[in-house]
Amino acid sequence: LAKTTQPISMDSYEGQEVNITCSHNNIATNDYITWYQQFPSQGPRFIIQGYKTKVTNEVASLFIPADRKSSTLSLPRVSLSDTAVYYCLVGPMDSSYKLIFGSGTRLLVRP
Amino acid sequence: GAGVSQTPSNKVTEKGKYVELRCDPISGHTALYWYRQSLGQGPEFLIYFQGTGAADDSGLPNDRFFAVRPEGSVSTLKIQRTERGDSAVYLCASSLGGNANTGELFFGEGSRLTVL
Question: What is the pLDDT of residue B99?
């Protein structure tokens, strides 16, 4: 499974756009990129998933360049409630798929 | 309930004791996962069930850890002769699995195990 590298922590202020970049240099052809969010004392929650180019949903956008060796999670106009740990994961969408989490990025949103 | 349910939410035990943690997945989800999360770390994969069988148990740290899912729904994680290093939050997740796998796992809130 492809290894991912992401910043340990990030700080932001309410109302700003936050971009968290993840590196996955050895991503395989059949790998997808998935982001999860985790609040204290809760299990991780799926945010967004993509294979290439751009994916957008009601929560975030995911930008994936043509070489797919990195991806950027974009959170528009963050609020205090977006303070959480964000995990980038890479793996194939087949029946043997298991999520391998790294240490994630701790995002702190300040007032 | 609609989500993944885990019991107990908190368990305190003494070193050497036996512990069982239960997971009730979302109805209709054929895939079930157990993870362990230590403070400040990401969740660590333990075992993955597809139906009743353990499709991948490569994450179980040693033979003191065992998990079952006899009817393809509820799963129990069993830890024998607990050690202080087993203290962690044990997370269960479920997903559609199989050919319907989308990579979206639904996690429970976890069972916090403390071994004294």
Answer: 62
